[in-house]
């Protein structure tokens, strides 16, 4: 069962208007901001990602973890205010849109190492990332958040380790602000009629699982991760499990009902994470994805035009995967899907989504182009649970 050890007083101590507070709450409830770009293309996955952000490690936290939590929980009030305002003004569909450039391959690889040091060893930047009001205050070699366009501005050249640590620190504090607003959203019961009406079409029910079911889900999903990815998780990882009921959500049916399980290597926005859906019945939807900076650091992004050159290679890898893991034969047909943001605009991406059709049913497989690996799969009748 989930244990929440976050100080719930952060948001109440910040001087913001009731209107702004309500707007923040609704942004979180509607899944406005997801921390991983690969989960911004589906309302359902976006919602699950936002819900999953509430998984917090329990009483066995390390000294480094406690140090990190103290850092984000005890931000000066002025800094707290800056992050709340950043969240309020964040209307980007993807993380990349909120930054002035992509991280280089070298920066991504160093970020993985420094992120481990930040969360696991308590290695923090010497200074916090600057918050600037105007673009005119920027210098070419600066890393800073600028209120004028609500973006993180990276230096023109390669970032130093100190700047990467500042960026990691910024993301940690920003995620903490999201968590705090999600806590407020989950506890707020004084929603007006207009707000209630807006939520009627997306009334996802979250149900706590019993201790017995949790232990079963732990072992079952450990086995699934080993079987599908050949990788192992252990009890030092952060585990979260809860049941979902989608019956009152427009556009969803009972095949979406099931258990949502998350394994995260540690408490970080970009930590290596497995996200799994175990359906209540075998004919329900099964899903398993792995993501995080460690997974994508070595991946290149492609336009859809560039990605199509790799379609045959990916198709062979995907068909081999579903045959070996799920016993599926040759599909009736295959469709290919490029990446789009929530606004329907084509974006660069590291993967291709393959839709394999078997009669009326289909299986979706995400294939990472540059690493030739399967990143995620979703479909009905893939595992037996009855």
Class per helix and strand makeup: alpha+beta
Helix and strand run: HHHHHEEEHHEHEEEEHHHEEEE
List how many beta strands DSSP finds.
12
Strand content: 15-25%
Dominant shape: globular
Question: How many H/I helical runs?
Answer: 11
Q: Numbering strands along the chain, what is their spatial order in the largest sheet?
A: 4-5-6-7-8-12-11-10-9
Terminal Cα span: 23 Å
| Most strands sheet | 9 strands, antiparallel
Helix content: 25-40%
Rg, nearest Å: 21 Å
Q: Average pLDDT, to the nearest integer?
A: 77
Q: Low-confidence parts, pLDDT < 50 over ≥5 residues?
A: 1-60, 184-191
Highlighted features:
single chain, 386 residues, 9-stranded antiparallel beta sheet, 3-stranded mixed beta sheet, 12 strands, alpha+beta
Structure description:
This protein is of the alpha+beta class and 386 residues long. It is built from eleven helices and twelve strands. A nine-stranded antiparallel β-sheet has the order 4-5-6-7-8-12-11-10-9. A three-stranded mixed β-sheet has the order 1-2-3, with no helix packed on it. Helix 1 (18-29) packs across helix 6, helix 3 packs across helix 5 and helix 5 packs across helix 6 (161-187). The longest helix has 27 residues, at 161-187. The two termini are 23 Å apart. 34% of the residues are buried. Mean pLDDT is 77; it is low at 1-60 and 184-191.
SSE arrangement:
Elements: H1 18-29, H2 43-52, H3 63-73, H4 77-89, H5 105-121, E1 131-132, E2 144-146, E3 151-153, H6 161-187, H7 193-199, E4 205-208, H8 211-229, E5 238-245, E6 258-264, E7 273-279, E8 285-291, H9 293-296, H10 304-307, H11 311-326, E9 333-337, E10 351-358, E11 361-368, E12 373-380
Parallel strand pairs: 1-2
Antiparallel strand pairs: 2-3, 4-5, 5-6, 6-7, 7-8, 8-12, 9-10, 10-11, 11-12
